[in-house]
Amino acid sequence: MRRHVIIGNGPAGVVAAETLRKNAPAGDAIVLIGDEDTPPYSRMAIPYLLHGDITERGTWLRKDPHHWKTLDIALRRDRVKALDTGHKSLSFESGDTLSFDTLLIATGSSPVLPPIPGIHAQRVHTCWTLEDARAIEKFAVPGARVIQLGAGFIGCIIMESLVRRRVALTVVEMGDRMVPRMMGETAGGMIRDWVQAKGVQVHTGARIESIESNPPDMQAPLAVRLSSGQRLAADLVISAAGVKPNIVFLENSAVRCLQGVLTDETMQTSVPGVYAAGDCAEAFDAVYGKPIVSAIQPNAVDQAYVAALNMVGKHAQLRGVTQINVLDTLGLISCSFGQWQGVPGGQGIELTDRAGFKHLSLQFDGDVMVGSNSIGTTEHIGVLRGLVEGRVKLGAWKDKLLADPTALMEAYLATAQAQSRRSLLAA
């Protein structure tokens, strides 16, 4: 009998555990470790909890309370302190140890707290756990003065929840536009304009310099000082300043890490028998041509499935990392694919209708579309993804798209489908 251990019980950990049970010999033990006092749940469901659309039970990844017992998967609540790859064992903060035959590191990521005086004050929260959500629900009542630090992808999702809770919301973003890691200057600026038109105050190119508790000159629990010199009263501050992989416990192990845990195409790390998946993993991206951390749930699930199959000796390879973000910001749909910022020596084209809140940006490397931004339309999302991820050689269609970027569907039908047919014939 072998023991397969998974650190992390988010979407990657859950999919890996279930895949292991389906493919491993019946006698093998499977242990799924989490460090929160809740059933495995989806962080991406927290905004829907704050919306009031679901209860906490609605965030659970598996609703049946007997699911894990039925599959004979052991759930363990503890936090891993260190990994000893030589002895194939984990040590926990509780003082216990656990040995393993194969290991999956699916520890995900945690919010980054910027070094701001007062960032640890009461009524200052991240929005990452169910415990965070409970605190936000308590203070984010209609009319409450809420200041949100950060307007990235996660920040915009949180913002949607806060608007629906009818708070008086102010967003502070250090970048010169909203979602700066997903959108270019024009697109990010258009999202900012859209949000402000919906009644949200947005400060771009600004920083929170301090958070003061119980300011004597303000009738508010908090006072927030901006880099502009403004002081704003607040009932609640939410930090959405990005995330980082949870890999600190690997510092003295033999597992090689850069930004995240480095993996090969089978999701195995530098240590045989030890795998990684999800937000903590650094997997190869065909568009960028290098390993990257891509913290989106579809990637986590794909990586976990591949890792689990290899953990039981069934060879599988990751096809690549999906670089896709689709965002609904107060009703404005935007998407980002691949190298949306362009590449050195490449070409690009932008088509913008500011009044209609529509924008399309296509970026090329030779005759291959390597990235795109889109705002205000959903009709081309599937085509953009297919062209970018498929590394489709557009030939003469590249110049046609530079002249008319709306001819995406015609270009896709003429090139991507033809490329697929050639691949089938070659096989």
**Could you estimate the helical fraction of the residues in percent?**
25-40%
Total domain modules: 3
Number of helices: 10
| Rg over C-alpha atoms, rounded to the nearest angstrom | 23 Å
Query: Which architecture of the largest domain does the CATH hierarchy give at level 2?
Result: 3-Layer(bba) Sandwich
- Tell me, rounded to a whole number, the average pLDDT: 93
| Rough outline | globular
| Helix/strand class | alpha/beta
Distance between the termini: 40 Å
User: At the third CATH level, what is the topology name of the largest domain?
Assistant: FAD/NAD(P)-binding domain
- What are the segments in which pLDDT stays under 50 over at least 5 consecutive residues? 423-427
Name the CATH superfamily classification of the largest domain: FAD/NAD(P)-binding domain
Reading off the top of the CATH hierarchy, the class of the largest domain is best stated as: Alpha Beta
Strand order of the largest sheet: 3-2-1-7-19
Number of strands: 26
Q: Mind describing the biggest β-sheet?
A: 5 strands, parallel
Strand content: 25-35%
Molecular structure report:
The chain is an alpha/beta fold. The protein has 3 domains: 3-109 and 244-311, FAD/NAD(P)-binding domain, CATH 3.50.50.60; 124-239, FAD/NAD(P)-binding domain (3-Layer(bba) Sandwich); 331-426, Enolase-like, domain 1 (2-Layer Sandwich). Helix content is 25%, strand content 29%. The relative contact order is 0.12. The model is unreliable at 423-427 (pLDDT under 50).
